[in-house]
Amino acid sequence: xxxxxxxxxxxxxxxxxxxxxxxxxxxxxxxxxxxxxxxxxxxxxxxxxxxxxxxxxxxxxxxxxxxxxxxxxxxxxxxxxxxxxxxxxxxxxxxxxxxxxxxxxxxxxxxxxxxxxxxxx
Length: 121
Fold this sequence. Notes:
Number of strands: 4
Distance between the termini: 68 Å
Largest sheet: 4 strands, mixed
Structural class: alpha+beta
Shape: flat
Strand content: 5-15%
Number of domains: 1
Number of helices: 2
Order of helices and strands: HEEEEH
């Protein structure tokens, strides 16, 4: 192998490495989004539906004003799910596709078969 070929091979390897390094944040974001959707869909199997939009890191109360127990999953019609942790705080927010979360909630009988207004006028 000549010196030119070795230099070219090293340059090509460095180029591929820098390209992969540049793509890594995108791949991680896609993977997190995909995992987040899968987690949200799993939570939709057992979650309690809330009529209010879910916000992470807020204390969640039931209708009587008591904190919800740790481990309870909440979901909203926007595709967001959250796990109640740390003495009633909402944590570990995961989002899924609203249409798929809504379909699961309909299947469970938590909402009626009617169109859902998702903030559109």
